[in-house]
């Protein structure tokens, strides 16, 4: 199978590329700077600067993971636009590729697995959140809504579309733990605000496995929550991480400090959703790391 990936050089994309290559698949990667990512991907990956560059070698499947980091900078109006545009533009590239393939009479991909995020639901308090839950209208939701909408034209061409609303991705060497581990290892960790906000999370290996599952299961389309079946509150996450590191976690960060430091972006830390992977589990997907303690034990 030939798989074209946007965001292939990212934290999730790198692992996905390696696993696909190990399984004998042909991997195509879209990167704005191919020469800068060669060292981070398997040598057999075909890396080009646009999706259109692959018009002569049509992919069998598309995986769309590209997008500016949502927590990289404070959310100014300019940064919000960049967050939205980076996701929409990458998605529209894939749609445009399919339009050209169709116009040329070339075979279309059978499926696109397109990224989204838990932010689609916005702040949901303590209610259990499935794919059917109505979202809370705020910036994170509007970003994800536009991201998802930009992928939907592909369905009219007969390409199956599966959207993955991804939780906090956990693994060593990057993801959500990258900035959290240093203070926790020094015994300086603590909950954010009240600690009652939920943190949907997923081990990177489970997320990659879920993406492959959605590629291979021909009957699956629509939105899927990409998170482990046992989300936890921020307070529980903090205690579990500290326990795994054998360190105290007695330095909570007050909400007022986070709001002052990060502005609207502080909602990423102070709000959440008790998000469950209802549709993945209904489809028969099995998580290797269903609980946080098991995931952190494997990682740490």
From TrEMBL:
SUPFAM superfamilies linked to this entry: NAD(P)-binding Rossmann-fold domains
A Pfam short name: Epimerase
Q: Where is the DUF1731 domain?
A: 253-299
List where the protein spans the membrane: none
In this chain the NAD-dependent epimerase/dehydratase domain maps to 3-218
Please report which protein family the annotation says this sequence is part of.
Belongs to the NAD(P)-dependent epimerase/dehydratase family. SDR39U1 subfamily.
NCBIfam families per UniProt? yfcH
Q: What is this protein called?
A: Epimerase
What organism does this protein naturally occur in? Vreelandella boliviensis LC1
């Amino acid at each position: 199978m030939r798989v074209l990936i946007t965001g292939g050089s990212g934290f999730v994309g790198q692992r996905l590329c390696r696993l696909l290559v190990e399984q004998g698949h042909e991997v195509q990667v879209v990167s704005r700077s191919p020469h800068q990512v060669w060292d981070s991907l398997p040598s057999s990956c075909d890396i080009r600067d646009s999706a259109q560059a692959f018009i002569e070698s049509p992919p069998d499947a598309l995986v769309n993971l590209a997008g500016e980091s949502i927590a990289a900078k404070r959310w100014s109006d300019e940064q919000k636009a960049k967050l939205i545009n980076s996701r929409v533009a990458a998605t529209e590239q894939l749609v445009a590729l399919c339009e050209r393939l169709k116009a040329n009479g070339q075979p279309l991909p059978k499926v696109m697995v397109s990224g989204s995020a838990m932010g689609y639901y916005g702040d949901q308090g303590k209610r259990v959140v499935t794919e059917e839950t109505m979202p809370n209208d705020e910036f994170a939701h509007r970003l994800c809504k536009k991201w998802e909408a930009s992928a939907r034209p592909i369905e009219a061409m007969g390409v199956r579309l599966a959207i993955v609303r991804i939780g906090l991705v956990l693994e060593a060497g990057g993801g959500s733990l990258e900035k959290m581990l240093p203070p926790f290892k020094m015994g300086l960790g603590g909950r954010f605000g009240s600690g009652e906000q939920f943190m949907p999370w997923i081990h990177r290996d489970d997320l990659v496995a879920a993406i492959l599952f959605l590629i291979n299961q021909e009957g699956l389309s629509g939105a899927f929550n990409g998170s482990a079946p046992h989300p936890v509150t921020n307070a529980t996450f903090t205690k579990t991480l500290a326990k795994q590191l054998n360190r105290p976690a007695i330095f909570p960060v007050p909400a007022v400090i986070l709001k002052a430091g990060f502005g609207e972006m502080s909602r990423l830390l102070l709000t959440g959703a008790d998000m469950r992977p209802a549709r993945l589990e209904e489809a028969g997907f099995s998580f290797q790391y269903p609980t946080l303690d098991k995931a952190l034990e494997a990682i740490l």
